[in-house]
Amino acid sequence: MEVHNRNQSMDAEHFLMTTKLLIAKPAVEEIKNHLLERCLSLKQRGIIPSMSVVLIGNSPASLSYIKNKRKMCEEVGARFQLHQLGEDVTAPEFLKLISQLNDDERIHGIIIQLPVSDHLKNLNLPNLVKPSKDIDGFHGENNQKLYAGSTNLQQLMPCTPKGIIQLLQHYDFNLQGKHAVVVGRSLIVGKPLSLLLSNFGATVTLAHSQTKDLKSLTRSADLVVAAIGKANFFNFTFFDPGRRTVVIDVGMNSLNGKLTGDVEILSVTNVVSAISPVPGGVGPMTVVSLIENLIIAAETIRHSY
Amino acid sequence: MEVHNRNQSMDAEHFLMTTKLLIAKPAVEEIKNHLLERCLSLKQRGIIPSMSVVLIGNSPASLSYIKNKRKMCEEVGARFQLHQLGEDVTAPEFLKLISQLNDDERIHGIIIQLPVSDHLKNLNLPNLVKPSKDIDGFHGENNQKLYAGSTNLQQLMPCTPKGIIQLLQHYDFNLQGKHAVVVGRSLIVGKPLSLLLSNFGATVTLAHSQTKDLKSLTRSADLVVAAIGKANFFNFTFFDPGRRTVVIDVGMNSLNGKLTGDVEILSVTNVVSAISPVPGGVGPMTVVSLIENLIIAAETIRHSY
Predict the structure, then answer these.
(1) ipTM of this predicted complex?
(2) Chain B closest CA to A88's CA: distance in Å?
(3) pTM, rounded to two decimals
């Protein structure tokens, strides 16, 4: 039995050596330390970076995301404020609050926590928060910079794509000339990420639910980003061991009450070169990128004095 | 000799049968007839669709493009106006003209003919013309609609991508689920086209100068869009006859004084399923799409009364 246990432990080591885990923690710590310094430097100039989150209703998922944002704000010394509105809030009341926050010089970043009630969904939500306070990076003006080819991460852009680039950079993955297959074309992840990867020199294929022969695409990719929201959808058959593919798992699915990615991690072990785990990968990178956006927004206000 | 000549003629027929030429003319005629009707209907309401082109200097290439725009305007019954400025025009003078045209209710579409003098290049050119008169489709607000997933061709968007979609539609090419490889990522063609193709259900790969192993991508594609600006760059080695690939040639290169595409058309004959010729393919589709944008802009003004 002793020997059997040792073998198991050796197998575990072998697993870690062959398929590298792209764990967010060291990258998050590094970025957070920079943000702490930048936040301190702002405070010395009398500016306390301040985030306002507007929440409609009280969905447990939204409250859990908000908790992470508040926690990370506290950790870097930024101010956090929650505006909770009832699900029956009228459009004019909702718009009035956003407008007040847009005008409030003490607020640097505004988030409209999604989803909102159905009767507010036709309000052109991405463009309600003014571009300079749009720390979610959803505003057309901020997307336009990605579209135009920017590789400057010190500007407001969607947090998950930004976090993924920073995770890849932390692990020294050079995107230039690589073939990246992004599966899923949401406005929050797939589309902005495909622009950003292209700006960094990758050849990008944007795949989606209508894609035929997805496997032949992912099997020929250097980088696969799984962002379709289906637990364990990608198993070893999607990857060619000879390509040494790097996989980023954006999935945040709940499976039997457990946070589960889009990639079946045990199945692809020893098949892909590296993979970001769920939890502990893209999620924390997204939150730290959001706080970075807040600091950028606060610094930009300072520059405009 | 008689027989030899007949054989040559039969070869030519064989050529036309196996690789279909996606000639713009019938598609252009069809769209132009619609535009004639729409223009007439506007005039009956007292609105004459009017285009203003702002040209800096007098480059022969620009003057030739402008000639085509003027001709097509005349053909559908729209008004055309050229504002020619010297190459030494100051930025304030230039901006004043654009501003006057933006404010002039009799003008429905404004084009800043590219290229402009170097000292004007940092002026945020795509966003100078207001979105409702931006018939080139370069303004951020208009790009944002493509980015958000629109498949509505009756809105202002870049003319070459729009013309390519309309050419494919004319020849009944269904994009859904097809793998499209777009080579070249300019803001005028490659980037907006890749968004548009994706919106129509294609799986899109955006390739460019840093792409490694371009041939393996184009050889696995259902649709290849060649937009790199290198005469005869793509020959038969880029295509797999078994895929029956459709090729759109966006190239407008001058080779020995002759307008030449990016694809060596004789080389790919019998290898690809269909190809748009140069000249007579994407060029005329682009011009007619520009005039369509003008009519859309004029109709939108009407609706807003």
Answers:
(1) 0.89
(2) 28
(3) 0.91
